[in-house]
Amino acid sequence: MVKRFDKNGRTSQRSTMKDKQTFANLSDFLQQLQTTPTIPPVHLWQPEYCGEMDLVIKANGEWWHEGRPILRQRMIDLFSRVLWKEGEDYYLKTPVEKIKIEVEDVPLSITCVDQIEQQGQSYIRMQTANQDVFILNEQHPLSLREFKGEIRPYVRVRYDLEALIQRQAFYHLVDLGELFEQEGKTILKLSSGSTFMELIVA
């Protein structure tokens, strides 16, 4: 359900009627995305804010709607393509609607890390669970930070959206890098093309 609010933050009495249209519009737009392999230009859209949807992206990467997990991966993939972040808030955004959702940690997750060769250089390639594929570089930097007492690795994917690097993918990333000790700390050094990164991992 989408909760709509007036200027004072009160729930709109017309929300029930508008909810059906909102879902219909979102569904229609997502169907159109199925024929387009690229990420849509979400940054160019300036839609009206339409309220909140009971959709939660859990810290473990699961998507839940109205208290139930979404099991259709294709649906999750489509929703992920219209994710948008403003400040600390997350939305699903189309050219005509912007719907707020809840994200417990970050909205995306890295499930695959490998190394490729292009024009004589080695690059680290990453892939999200939703089929985003990109090269680790200055536009896609790594970071480590705490979440509920656990230090987690992240990477920026697009439009300020970050992905959690899943455990097995991070182990592979470590294998592609070089570990060394400096001032009592363990540092992971990575190279991807002309980009060099260092992470304090212990």
From TrEMBL:
Residues 40-106, 109-198 form the DUF1285 domain. InterPro entries: DUF1285, DUF1285_beta_roll_sf, DUF1285_C, DUF1285_N. It comes from the Bacteria. Transmembrane segments: none annotated. This is DUF1285 domain-containing protein. The lineage of its organism: Bacteria, Pseudomonadati, Pseudomonadota, Gammaproteobacteria, Moraxellales.
